[in-house]
Specification:
Number of strands: 12
Number of helices: 12
Structural class: alpha+beta
Number of domains: 2
Shape: globular
Strand order of the largest sheet: 9-10-12-11
Distance between the termini: 31 Å
């Protein structure tokens, strides 16, 4: 989550962990080490307690912290298996601001972690976005938004999306909740750079996630600008799970696209080594019966690339509720998570996906 100080990265972490604590109908749970578990449970407990004024403050300067979570699934008959691991980087937003050109110190650990991440999601502060849309923003606010977009353009990650935090704050002067299409369209009118960012062909499947880690009605902004929890309100984060659900199929699609870059006849070749292919992609190919052969020129894929994603989706149900070796159950767990991710991604795209400006008839 690439964002500046105050956008709510720590709250996003707490909301994400809270969403996957108990599994639900999917049986997908997140777990971590005992020390991190206790720390997160205390954080969640204090956030939920409306008699406690506490809300997480900006992460202080210091070395970034990586939170590591296992994604675990109940595969069959009470047995559990791990699908993969997710690492979430928490850091002082000043480091991202310094990278974007603001004054301040830079962290080598932050830069190294940024280079190594598989998924990058820029986080726009919903309060800043609202000020821009209503014409209340200082010039520096729009500069800050555009600097974040520039950071995303500069990166090499295959999977890049946007998160608009504090979505509950995106209301007009009459208190009407703004729609995502409306927010994006008005941002494009306010910032030609935002529109150019969205039209960049590299971001042809760019998703914009409207996320509220408070949920509606849990906290309100006081006259002094502080967020104040409302007595007796329930903490019910909105859409905090969609960034994770959509990222997994997008990583797979990115790997397939990279392998499709070099074609020869009916089969595709790639200069990528096995080590550079995402581990999840190799496992998914195995699930779908897609054969990968190592050669002196890289990897030979014995299935046309255009058919791989369809074969993956078709193969997933066959892996449920099977028994066998730990390796087999690990694949079944991955299959269960992927099926859920594909379903959630389709649901998100059906409700929220905003097509680029040109596709909406707003081309130059």
């Amino acid at each position: 989550m690439l964002g500046f100080s105050g956008v709510g990265k720590t709250l996003l972490l707490a909301g994400l962990f809270s969403r996957f604590r108990f599994g639900g109908p999917s049986g997908i749970t997140m777990y971590t080490d005992d020390a991190s578990e206790r720390e997160l449970e205390r954080l969640i407990g204090r956030i939920q307690d409306t008699e406690d004024e506490y809300l997480p403050e900006a992460t202080p300067l210091g070395d970034p912290r990586t939170w590591s979570f296992g994604i675990r699934v109940d595969v069959a008959h009470g047995r559990r298996a791990d699908a993969f691991t997710v690492n979430y980087l928490d850091y002082a937003g000043e480091y991202a601001a310094a990278l974007a050109g603001a004054d301040g110190e830079m962290s080598d650990a932050f830069l190294a972690a940024l280079r190594d991440t598989d998924i990058l999601m820029g986080v726009l502060d919903g309060g800043d976005v609202r000020d821009v849309l209503l014409g209340d923003a200082r010039p520096q606010t729009l500069v800050k938004v555009e600097r974040l977009l520039r950071l995303l353009v500069r990166t090499d990650q295959r999977c890049v999306h946007l998160v608009i935090s504090k979505w509950d704050a995106l209301v007009d002067r009459d208190g009407r909740q703004l729609g995502l299409d409306e927010v994006v369209s008005r941002l494009e009118q306010a910032s030609a750079n935002f529109r150019d960012f969205r039209l960049n062909p590299r971001f042809s499947t760019l998703r914009i996630f409207p996320v509220s880690t408070f949920g509606r009605g849990f906290a309100k902004q006081a006259a002094d600008g502080r967020m104040v929890k409302q007595p007796g309100a329930r903490w019910n984060p909105l859409n905090v799970d969609f960034p994770l659900y959509c990222a997994i199929p997008d990583i797979l699609a990115g790997d397939v696209a990279a392998m499709s870059a070099n074609r020869s006849g009916r089969e595709n070749h790639t200069t990528l080594t096995k080590e550079r292919l995402a581990q999840v992609t190799v496992a998914v190919f195995e699930l779908a019966g897609v054969l990968l052969k190592a050669s002196g020129h890289g990897l030979l894929v014995a299935v046309p690339m255009s058919a791989i994603l369809d074969r993956v989706r078709d193969a997933l149900p066959r892996w449920f509720n099977r028994t066998g070796s730990p390796r087999f159950e690990g694949n079944a767990a991955l299959a269960r998570v992927l099926e859920h991710c594909y379903a959630k991604t389709a649901a998100f795209d059906g409700q929220w996906y905003v097509h680029p400006a040109a596709a909406r008839g707003q081309g130059e």
